[in-house]
Amino acid sequence: MKKLLCIVGARPNFMKIAPIMRALREDAPGIEAKLVHTGQHYDYAMNEAFFLQLEIPAPDISLEVGSGSHAQQTAEIMKRFETVVDAEQPDCVLVVGDVNSTIACALVAAKKGIRVVHVEAGLRSRDRSMPEEINRILTDQLSDRLYVTEREAIGNLRAEGIAEERVVFAGNVMIDTLLHSLPRAIAARHTIEQACALAGSEKDADTFLRADRGYAVLTLHRPSNVDDPTVLVNLLTVLEQQCQELPLVFPVHPRTRAKISEAGCGPFLENSRVLALPPIGYLEMLGLMKEARVVLTDSGGLQEETTALGVPCLTLRENTERPITIEQGTNTLVGVEPDRIRLALTNIAEQAMSPRQPEYWDGAAAQRICRDLAEWLR
Ligand code: UD1
Questions:
Q1: pTM of the prediction?
Q2: What is the 3-state secondary structure (H, E, C) of the chain?
Q3: Structural domains for the chain
Q4: Which stretches of the chain drop beneath a pLDDT of 50?
Q5: Residue 41 Cα, ligand 1 centroid: separation in angstroms?
Q6: Does 125 sit in the ligand 1 pocket, CB within 6 Å?
Q7: Residues labelled catalytic
Q8: 168-185, pLDDT tens digit by residue?
């Protein structure tokens, strides 16, 4: 029996680990897996809600690190995870994605001579001002087995000197979760009506649910968009103008809510054509996106999910580490320039889109990973 520690910490990790834990149970009899939660995300809505909806087993070990600066958070995870590694003596540590928990645990394991597996390896935005880009590059350098979601990632890893025999094109585990969960997606009407009822008389669900017009979903949380008040104010100004055409449903990340308030943009959230929600569950988000006219976002995961759903996505960034969502998907990079955003929103009105399935985004990525892993660990 080989002992594997699987790591999660932040919201986007949960969608990735869910199918892996399931496949480990069903397809990898030679592996004993334990789930370690670093506690990077801890609010019920950012954390437990996802465990319940995605049927992820409760963590075997919780590190409860919480928030902090990048250095503090990464260091705290490392200190606490080292104790776990010493006690558990695993054969292998599996990390997913690109958050601080990913690099922190990979680094601890690699320095102890324990094999590291990275799921969602090789994605590159080539923008080192993104904390995630640094996490990706370093995690891949430390990894012994690297599972990629798109072919371009293989070339990225090769260019960084990573031996090709360590790299496996397995597909996209986030899309495993999407396809698995789609039948249980919660109708947009339900989420919107509930949010309007909570908001009281200022918000009218019919504004967002008019069949002839529809709504846009907005998410924002990248430091490059929300930490600089000038960028944030400009972005919210153009979005406030655009919401007269297409109302906005906006689940607000806690860090973004704080930054909006600091920048004095609170009235944006009160606009009758902007429906600001607290962070919502995975099944609610899936339902909202599925029925949206367009998704405006700076998230990485949403670029992939909108591709699989066949919903236009306008990415409020200058680059993406997920180029396949542009080449084969529904994604367009629009940056944060008001004119580009306006033009892109006008253009989507013309386009009819259908769900896309890039190679191996087929719902079976986690099974491919776990079968390969069982063989490789043997
Ligand atoms: C992290 C990831 C990012 C991912 C995002 C998804 C890194 C470097 N960033 O960013 O890649 O896209 O998660 O959400 O790992 N907070 C809460 N409750 C929580 C968690 C956070 O209120 O449960 C607030 C705290 O004020 C905290 C801030 O959000 O300081 C930022 O949290 P953090 O985990 O540091 O980064 P995210 O912006 O969430």
A1: 0.97
A2: CEEEEEEECCHHHHHHHHHHHHHHHHHCCCEEEEEEECCCCCCHHHCHHHHHHCCCCCCCEECCCCCCCHHHHHHHHHHHHHHHHHHHCCCEEEEECCCHHHHHHHHHHHHCCCEEEEEEECCCCCCCCCHHHHHHHHHHHHCCEEEECCCHHHHHHHHCCCCHHHEEECCCHHHHHHHHHHHHCCCHHHHHHHHHHHHHHHCCHHHHHCCCCCCEEEECCCHHHHCCHHHHHHHHHHHHHHCCCCCEEEECCHHHHHHHHHCCCHHHHHCCCEEEECCCCHHHHHHHHHCCCEEEECCCHHHHHHHHHCCCEEECCCCCCCCHHHHCCCEEECCCCHHHHHHHHHHHCCCCCCCCCCCCCCCCHHHHHHHHHHHHHC
A3: 2-171+361-377 (3.40.50.2000), 186-348 (3.40.50.2000)
A4: none
A5: 6
A6: no
A7: 221
A8: 999 999 999 999 999 999
